[in-house]
Structure formats: structure tokens, C-alpha cells
Amino acid sequence: MKPLDLRSLPVQLILGSIGLVVLTAVAAGVPAIWLLYNQLEHQAWDQVEQGRRATTALYDTRQRELVSLATLTAQRPTLRELLDQADPTALKTYLQTLREGADLDLIAVCAGQQTVIAQTNGSISMEACVDDFPEGVYLDSTEQPSQLWLLASHPIFDPPIERLEAVTVGLLLDDDFAATLRDQTGLEHTLLAGGWPTATSLAGGPRARRDARISPVGDNAGRRLFINNQPYYAAEIALTDPSSDVSLQAEVALPVEEIVITQRQLAWVLGGSILVVALVGSVLGVLLARHISRPLARLTRAATTFSRGDLSRPVDVDTWVREVALVGSALETARIDLNLTLNDLQREKAWTDHLLAAIVEGIVTLDRRGKIMFFSSGAERITGWNHDEAVGRSCDDIFSSEEPNPFSSLINPPGRRHKITVTLRDQRQAVLAVTSATVQPPEGSEARLVLVFRDVSEAEAVHRLMGHFLANIAHEFRTPLTSLAASTELLLDQAPDLSREELQELIGSLHLGVLGLQTLIDNLLEGASIEAGRFRVYTRPVELKSIVAEATRVMQPLLHKYQQQLTLTLPPEPLHVQADPRRTTQVLINLISNAGKYGPDNAAIDVSAAACEGSVRVTVADRGPGIPAAYRQDLFRQFVHPSGDNRDVQYGAGLGLSVVKAIVEAQGGQVGVDDRPGGGTIFWFTIPLEHNA
Prior knowledge:
alpha+beta, Beta-Lactamase, six-stranded antiparallel beta sheet, 15 helices
């Protein structure tokens, strides 16, 4: 059903006609009905107030009666004698007789704080036994459900006295007590503890009052209740001090169903009169607005079509009302202009969205509180968060920084670039190069901070890796060059005076330096060719022993220098493999060099070979410190060298093992590392046999 538009001219004409007629009826009938209605309300609340006062007086009377009974009971000589005799059975029987005679629910004798000596069939918690002899309403929450008592206490004095004894008398404030007050006041009576009913005179018991719907009226004293769909006017009586831990109240309620029925009848009378008048006014209004409503309805439909984004339908209004025709013409002109503007905006938006999606960098806009307002496609790719998850959240939540300060405090002033390490959604650490700028949106909105960032983690890693690599290369070159320079200088200065053995030792040192430099340069050249994609191996059938012999010949001086022995374990039969001899020799040289570098002096390096399933497995085993398992996954990458626990060896080019892996795999083999039993490391690689080439 189409909602009524109060701003439309036909509706206003109809309502105007109705209003004129209804106003007359309302002006005459409403005041009279309101006076009757108000009078009924006033009388009902007066009755509730009188019942509240009467109930308060009844509570005061009962309290005074309890105080008198407590005083009389405490002064009875028989009670004192029984207390002195310390006979609990006789004392309880005596108290039961007093309770029945005084029509009480409880008589208890307390000694000290929270100590009950004896009490009648009714029982209360020991918390009621306190030193200051309370009087009034007490909530016993130890019972289920909780019980309300009206208590009075009086001390028992019998000097000399070593302990304080008192008599407590009480009435149980239960449903029977509430029914008695209802009979005396004519109002329903309910007892509440903390707003929760514990006893009531209402039909259905406390549950009916607990399920009541409550509607406050004006001040805090009055309220409307709906119990079992029956209306009541109610007021509360405070039984305890408002500042006490548990709020206890009594509630009196007056059934007002007859008053409500009378009020409803008055409302129906007034409503019926107004309805008749409205019908008469409607007929007059419809006749007046009929000639105007039709063209206006067509204009309304056209405007509704515009609001839905459909600007393709022209506005066509045929009317004899000149003003309406002018409005239709202006609306058609606006439709044409809006259609052109909307098409231009859609093209601009599509282009902007395409441009933002194509930008590699992430773009984020923040409000002045650091909340994310915009999250580009580039930002989604870099961080792993999507637009819907990020927008509206703090930038510190999306960009979690490992630094002590949050991400928002690390952003530099606009125009300056800064690198910040953050944790992405997949818990990966990334380095972001962040640049900020402040923009002012149109229409006077608050300024926003725009962040443009790029993931430079790989560039930072390469930068650090290259620094480490260059430092190691410099060290690797400096060591043999220093040795060469020292040996050469010694030869230049003292060659005529040196013995043959000393000359032989110096020449051997020169040879080791040249060998080290040659090995390093070979690895550098191989690493460069691997990076450039020009690395090739040229395999041919070759006998493995010749490769091992060449590698042993090259490495023998270095092993001799460190007093290390090379142990060869080769099968007696020839092993013909399909390999590049020069490159395979380089593999063995690199592995033996690493074994000598990381192994102890005066130790053996074991080289062995054995045929296995169409290939030959070659192993180089040392007695070094070993390589941790966590380090092995990166061991054959460039710029990584074995470290283990040997702190004496701290440098290496980090190319040897990567070159080994490239050569072996290019020949169709595999390479790996294992722990050596008894300590040390075993590097192994495989070479295809000749018939598998």
C-alpha cells in the first residue's frame, strides 16, 4: 500500500476539509471527555494513596507490637532461669509455648553476634543475631525461596553478665500476611526484595507479580501494572533505608479494570464522532482535489522514476492547470541535464576505479582519529586485508608494528618517506616505504591523511644481503692477498739468504693463495652466470676416478697446510659417469674446501663413491661442528655459508654451495646434507651413470 504523502496538494485539500469539520467536533467534545477521564484517574490514585498510608500505619503498628512482645519476653524470669540451666530442650519448648500464645511466627534467643541458642519452628539465618538488636524488615536469603521477616529484638540483662543475650521475635511476611493486609486495606499487597516479589495477595502468587508488565507514572511512587492482563494502579512503601545493601519494599495495587473500561468507552464515543465528521470532510475534499490530483500524480510518478536512477523516460503531463504544466516542463529539462551529467560521472568513476586498481602501491586514507576511510586494491594485495575488513578500523590494528610505538605514531610529516616494519595479516614481516599527504575533501569535510606505501621487503633483504656478501668477499680476497704480499715481500728482501726448504715453503704459501683466489673467482663467475641465466654444463662420458684425482691434486697443498688427511674410498671397478669434468671437479673442490675450513686441524676428510640405482653417490664427510637442522633449508642458496657452532669461522662468500647445487642439478643429479654419526657433516651429490645419459 502506497504511504500517504502529507505534502501533496490533493491530500492537503482533503485533510483541510476534514480538519475544519473535525476541529469543531473536537473543540466541543474533547474538553468534556478529558475532564471525566481526569476525574476518574484522580479518584483512583487518591484511593491508592490512602491505601499506601493505611498500609504504612499497619506496618508501624505491627512493629510496635513486636517491640512490646520482644521486651516482655526478654523480661520473663522463667526465660532467664532456663538460660542459666542451659537446657536447650526445655528452652525450646518454653519458646514454642510463648510463640503460640502471642500468635508469632518466630521466637529466637541469640548469644553474641550471629549465634542462635534456641528458636521455635520458624527459623532465620544467624545473620539476624547482631549486637545492636535490629528492628524492622529482614531478608533471609538462606532459604529458597527467600523469606521476609518483620523482626524486633530486646536484650536480656542479668548482671553480672559475661555475654550479651537477646530475644528476637518475628512475623513471617508471606502470602497469608499479604492477604491479611489486603482484607484490611482493600488493596492487593505484594512484598518485594530488590524489586523481586517474595510474597503477594495476588491470584497466582509471586509468579503472577513477577510476570507483570510495569509502566511508570510521573513520579517514582506511582506505576501501572498489568497482571494476568488485568490493569492495576500501584504505589511502593519503602521498608528499609534506600542506602541499605538490599532494598525491601511493600507494594499496594488497586484493580482499575472498570475505570479503564469507562475511559475506553469515552474514547470510542469521541473517536466515533470524529470519524463521522472525517468521512463528511473526506467526501468534500475528494471532490475538490479530483481535478488537480491526476496531473500531480503523473508528476509524482516521474519524480519517483528519477529517484530510482531511470532518466530515460520523458516527462509528459497534459493538464489545463498552467502552474502544473510549467512544473512538468522544468522537470523534463532537469531530466535531460541530469542524464548527461550522470553519464559523465559514471565514466569518470570507472576511469578512477581502474586507475586505482592498476596502481601497484597501496593507498589508504585516514580520518583525524586514525580510522581507515579508504583501502585501495594495491593495499589489499600488499597487506592481505580486504576493503570491507579494513574500512572503519584503526590503522594500528591493520598495520601491526613490532616497534614499541604504534604504527600511527611512526608516520612522518606529509611529503617525507619513511620505512616501517609491520606484521601483515598472514603474520609475515614486511618493510613498507610509507609517504603521507594531507588532503581536504570538498564541502568542508575534515582533512584526511593519505598514505601511499610500497612493500620494499625484498629490496631491503637484498640490500642487507649484498652488504654482507661484499664484506665477506672483501675478507675472502684480503686473506690470500695478505698472505701473497707477505710471502712475495719476504722473497724480495731475503731470497738470497733463504734455504731451499724455506723457499719451498714460501712458494707453497704463494701457491695456496693463488689456489684460494682461483677457487673464489671460479665461484664468483659461476654465480654470475647462474644469475644471468647463461649457466650451462657440457656433459660427456668420463671416469669418476680422474675427477677425484684432479680435485685431490688441487686441494692437497691446502690440506697439508692444516695437517688434514684426505681419505678416499672408491670402488675397484671403473665408474663411468655422464658429467662435465671441469664443473664436477669444481663441485668436489668446493665441498673439500668447506670440509677443511670448518673441520678441525689434524682431522681426516673422507671422500667416498658408490653406484646406486643408475647413478653414483659421492660423499664428503668431515668432523666439524655440524649444521643445525633449521639452517639446512637455506644452505644451498646464494650468499649463505655453513656456520654451525664454530665461532672461529665467521666469513665466506656464500657462493660455493649454491654453485655446487646448480652444477649437480644441471647434470641431472641431486645434492644434500646429513649428520655424520659421531659428529660432523656429510655432504653428498649424485652423478648419472654413462648408460643413463
